Amino acid sequence: MTLTADVKTSDTQAPPLDDTDGLGAPALRPTRLTVGHVVLGAGFLLAAAIVSILVGPAGLPAGPVLVEVLSRLPLVHLHSGLSATGVVVVWQLRMPRMVLGGLVGAMLAIAGASYQGAFSNPLADPYLLGVASGAGLGATLVVVGAPVIGQIPSDLLPVAAFLGAVLAVAATFALGRSRASERSAASLLLAGVAVAAFFTAVQTFLLQRSSPGQLSTVYSWILGGLSTAGWSQVELVLPYVGTAMVVLLACRRLLDVMSVGDEEATSVGVRAERVRLVVIVAATLGTAAAVSVSGLIGFVGIIVPHTIRLLAGPSYRRILPLSVLFGAGFLILADLLARTVLSPAEIPLGVVTAFLGAPFFLVVLRQARRLG
Amino acid sequence: MLEIEATSVVLNGTTVLSGVSARVASGGWLGLVGPNGAGKSTLARAVAGLVSYEGRILIGGREQAASDWRNRARAVAYVPQRPVLPPSMNVTDYILLGRSAHHSYLGAETAKDRRVSAAVVDRLGLRTFCQRRLAELSGGEAQRVVLARALVQEAPVLVLDEPTTSLDLGHSQLVLELVDELRDEKGISVLCAIHDLTLAAQFAENLLVLCHGRAVASGTPADVLTEVNIRRFFGAEVEVLRSGSGLAVTPVRRRVPVLTAAVANLSPSDRHLNSI
């Protein structure tokens, strides 16, 4: 047992003795989201959004594009001088793609962060409980089944991916819960691994018997991308993603309580199992909606929350709101790279996030280990 | 006031607690003693509402099983044997978790929550630790912090499960003295499972001896902790020394071959443990 005589106090906090509750005794200062954090996150997101609107293969001049965007704000009367094509590029191509990228990135990041809290497991995210394999199987079924049932409208793919993801997590939950309740977090994760393996096996079997064309369709969907993004897809995911985010943000303090384990959380009046259920349902629905339009973009749910954890500490009161801002900004930037680096060809978005994310994450991990 | 009436607990088909009754007055201290596996922790957890039980557990006359989780957390504070301490959480945030049942479910702590917690922090001398991370605390400091989290629940019943397990003698004494002062000040009923019979005798007003899930003896420490009882229930050869400050239980080295004596004193159900 070490007696820590000269341990430095946590550097994210101000000294404890400088304010009072008006009663003479210095008040306690719990960790809260600070204005500085929010300004930083919002600034990052805004910068990412602006750059992504300005840059693209159409080569539109930056000034008029900015004026065009500002001209749509209420009470602003400006004329950008952009051609009709330019206006379409900004409003029908770049803008919906940026918004969709932001929504997907925010959703994946907050879902990952919430899962990590609900399972007290730094590697947890919705993919681990079967979202990825379920969505993959759903998409595969549509692509492979299309010639069999005749022509299938293209917007069936997101629906099938969504249903597959929800079904896989539901199966995980049903199987994981039937085991001893004491270890429900661990057994859920194990059930998730089993369900994912099963769904992936079915998917692999179907793909192995499919044509090369179908194989490449499924493959490019799995790698993720926003190249077909439009306002209709924003409308499709917004209700799910919006609701999921509101629910998860509301649970942020409860996730802090969950960090002392199910039993102690229960002893201070928080039903850990119920919180976990709510988080799983919200994060899964939101993530399923997001991947149904974007494909399986990996790693966002792991790297964004962990980077925030390193910068802002372990409290979910900070991690969840900041995950929304930084997750959105991160994916918007990743998509910018995906569509510009090899323009006019596109790099799959999942490749960009992993290519950038993996090395970055390793650096973060080394830092974290040094800080203990 | 805590009343335990004919309480039984069955875990995975095994009866681990069988018809135990006990009563702790407001400001009283009941020590739970007994050999390993006797059901001390199970009784502590049943009172805290963490395992389902048959029988009745009443706090201030209210049946615990009928309360919802938040009301239960306001009635019983629980200090587990091995608390989970998230390493990078700071002490202030950790202590404030204990107020969860007092403020709105999804909301943040109110000024009152922070005031109550600040008073407990000052009472336990934790002010200088407030911004430390839990990983930076020594064992004795951590135990005080966990106690603070339990005390901010402002519950009339405090359940401690082996609060001194990981502490040296001085820190054990310090923690138990703190609990003793607080129960006196605030009229808290203390239920404390504890291994160390000497400490149990010094701090508890009454002792309940559990053995194989049954209450086998109860009363004041002087009545309960006799050499005969300890040999019978713990399989231990001891000398009980009485002095002005209470009594001390001292192990006596056996002069017979050890295994024979130990096995003879253990019950049949414990014997398989020796072969592991």
The overall strand count of chain B is: 12
Average residue pLDDT of chain A: 85
Separation of the first and last Cα atoms of chain A = 17 Å
Which two protein chains have the largest interface (Cβ within 8 Å of the partner's Cβ), and how many residues from each? A-B, 44 and 57 residues
Task: Look up the CATH topology of chain A.
Answer: ABC transporter involved in vitamin B12 uptake, BtuC
CATH homology superfamily of chain A: ABC transporter involved in vitamin B12 uptake, BtuC
What does this structure look like?
The complex is a heterodimer of chains A (372) and B (276). Chain A is mainly alpha-helical and 372 residues long. Chain A has helices spanning 35-54, 62-71, 84-119, 131-149, 156-177, 184-208, 212-223, 231-250, 252-258, 262-267, 272-294, 300-312, 316-340, 349-371. Chain A has a single domain, classed as ABC transporter involved in vitamin B12 uptake, BtuC, CATH 1.10.3470. Chain A is globular and about 65 Å long. With 276 residues, chain B is an alpha/beta fold. Chain B has two domains: 2-225, Rossmann fold; 226-276, no CATH class. Chain B contains eleven helices and twelve strands. In chain B, a hairpin with a 2-residue loop joins strand 9 and strand 10. The N and C termini of chain B lie far apart (42 Å). Residues 271-276 of chain B have low confidence and may be disordered. Chains A and B meet through helix 9 and helix 10 of A and helix 2, strand 6, helix 3, helix 4 and helix 5 of B.
